[in-house]
Amino acid sequence: MSAALLRRGLELLEPPGQGKAPPGAQRGRDGPRAAGAARRRKRAPEPGRNKATVKGRVVKSAIEEYHKKKPVNHLRENLQYMLKGRLVADKAITEKVLAQNRGRKSKDQPPEKAEKKKPEGTVFTEEDFRKFEREYFGIP
């Protein structure tokens, strides 16, 4: 909110009998340089305790500080939370979601799975080889 809007709002809230104050007295400053002087003015030192002395200071235990800052293991709570809901989506749906989240670049695409070739076996049996041997070589 700007200062002008704030001033107008305060003028509306004033009792109707009071007039508008002159612009110099409205701000409550002595001159144009008073704003900078107010910022530069140092606060008077408070009559509190002197921070340079040790009197009244509570010594913190290093062990207590270590235990305060020690990391907490949330594994058990997280496992309970994860195992609480056992809803498993269909494989087709999960594949769709994964495909949508992948980029279009080739580096983002998963490697295509090559179909495994079955080891080629022979069509002929031992009996066929013996029969061929007899016919070709003439062995009875």
TrEMBL record:
One of its GO terms (cellular component) is nucleolus. It comes from Neopipo cinnamomea. Residues 106-120 have a biased composition (Basic and acidic residues). Residues 1-26 have a biased composition (Low complexity). InterPro entries: AROS. Keywords: Nucleus. It is found in: Nucleus, Nucleolus. Belongs to the AROS family. It holds the Pfam family AROS. The keyword Transmembrane helix does not apply. The keyword rRNA processing does not apply. This is Active regulator of SIRT1. PANTHER family: ACTIVE REGULATOR OF SIRT1. Its main location: nucleus. One of its GO terms (molecular function) is enzyme binding. Residues 1-56, 98-125 are annotated as: Disordered.
